[in-house]
Design goal:
about 425 residues, alpha/beta, four-stranded mixed beta sheet, 23 strands, globular, binds shikimate-3-phosphate
């Protein structure tokens, strides 16, 4: 229960400009994909946070050279598509599902053994969803509890993996990306179909490395690539993370007197569900200076306080705002009327069971205002909110959402608040500066 942090009410709202830190998903991928090339790649605006550093640690253990020029800038030099080397010890994915799941896809076709461990949270999360399709391709992966949990061992196969057509039961970018990465090394093209399109950074970025990718509706096909066809770019600039901007989008909307400008935010349409939902709730949010950088759309986002009203949303939009549910639940508490969230069962297998965590902890601040459902939440707006001590369950997105909730109401004491180091190490110093 280390690190109880007290957040005081922000009486005049939050005002100012926030440089949003680099996108977590793109930071992971930039190091992984650059590490498969054989020329140096200069990565800028890298997210220097625990999750992405787990990926750096794993790539280094596989023989990739990673040099930090400063916290957010690094040079990654790989040894080619077939140049990863057998790690000397167990690979540690830490708290990071993205590291573990994407690396499972990348390591399944390699001619050496790798073994993964991770922290207590990651050790509870389901890996069968990745292991099963990779096994269909011919991969040999073994894990605890019937091949579903860490620790996991990835054993080399005799021949190449096989290209498959896979209909994924979940809209998950981690599952999709693992299969596409294995598909780079397969004997034929591989197609993944999802119920709804999840974040498409893997397909966009791999196309930038010369990999042939084809999209059709909710399906995407990767074509196996030759060593000579895989060309790393000289530079990658990571856009700001809309999932980190989310805390300010909501705080700026619900706290009277707020006026914020969020700089360099990635607005890839597979990630902007929060903008759509907040707009429907009546938020005052405008995109400025829209531009494209390295194939990704970015913008500065202005937000000012507004009167929100409740909304309903479900499965279809879920992949586009999957990490923003905790903070959208905060917005809903301050809205007029009820907000009904359905199709959110995936939240039960995130860093913690976020539906349970939101219902339990928000309730301590706003008794009677949240109902937990099997696959969602019902949140009664205009909630009466008091000061309380709450748990983050070591989940970074719970900690930041609870901080916004407390700042907008009567303050809050947050247990294990240091979990913000997973995706936003400077979060608490930023909010102090703004209030
Ligand atoms: C991510 C995909 C999402 C998201 C996670 C990052 C990625 O997970 O929740 O924070 O970088 O691919 P799922 O694929 O499990 O939905």
């Amino acid at each position: 229960m280390a690190e109880i942090r007290t957040i005081e009410p922000a009486e005049h709202g939050w005002r100012g400009t926030v440089e949003i830190p680099g996108d977590k998903s793109i930071s992971h991928r930039s190091v992984m994909f650059a590490g498969l090339g054989n020329t140096p790649v200069h990565i800028r605006n890298f997210l220097h946070a625990a999750d992405c550093l787990s990926t750096v640690g794993v790539m280094r253990a596989l023989g990739v050279d990673v040099k930090f020029l400063n916290e957010n800038e690094l040079i990654v030099t790989g040894n080619g598509l077939h140049g990863l080397s057998e790690p000397m010890s167990v690979l540690d994915a830490g708290n990071s599902g993205t590291t573990l799941r994407l690396m499972m896809g990348l390591l399944a076709p390699q001619p050496f053994l790798s073994v993964f461990s991770g922290d207590a949270s990651l050790t509870r999360r389901p890996m069968g969803r990745v292991l099963r399709p990779l096994s269909e391709m011919g991969a040999r992966i073994f894990g605890r509890s019937g091949n579903n949990n860490l620790p996991l061992a990835i054993v080399p196969t005799e021949g190449k993996l096989h290209g498959i057509r896979y209909e994924s039961p979940v809209a998950s970018a981690q599952v999709k990306s693992a299969i596409l990465l294995a598909g780079l090394y397969a004997d034929a093209p591989t197609t993944v179909t999802e119920p709804y399109v999840s974040r498409d950074h893997t397909e966009q970025m791999l196309a930038g490395f010369g990999v042939r990718m084809e999209r059709s509706g909710t399906s995407v096909t990767v074509f196996p690539v030759e060593e000579s066809g895989y060309r790393a770019p000289d530079e990658i600039t990571v856009p700001g993370d809309i999932s980190s901007a989310a805390y300010f989008l909501v705080a700026g909307s619900i706290m009277k007197g707020s006026r914020l400008l969020l700089k360099n935010v990635g607005v890839n349409p597979t990630r902007t569900g929060i903008l759509d939902v907040l707009a429907e709730m009546g938020a005052h949010i405008t995109l400025q200076n829209e531009r494209t950088s390295g194939g990704e759309r970015i913008a500065d986002i202005a937000v000012a306080a507004a009167s929100l009203h409740g909304v309903s949303f479900g499965a279809e939009i879920m992949p586009r705002l999957i990490d923003e549910i905790p903070v959208l639940a905060v917005a809903a508490l301050f809205a007029e009327g009820d907000t009904v969230i359905t199709g959110a069962g995936e939240l039960r297998v995130k860093e913690t069971d976020r539906l349970r965590a939101i219902a339990t902890e928000f309730q301590k601040l706003a008794p009677g205002s949240i109902e937990e459902r099997e696959d969602g939440l019902v949140i009664h707006g205009n909630a009466k909110i008091a000061r309380a001590q709450v748990k983050s369950y070591g989940d970074h997105r719970m900690a930041m959402s609870l901080a916004v909730l407390g700042a907008a109401a009567d303050g809050v004491l947050i247990e294990e608040s240091d979990s913000v180091h997973i995706s936003y190490p400077t979060f608490f110093s930023e909010i102090e500066r703004l209030s």
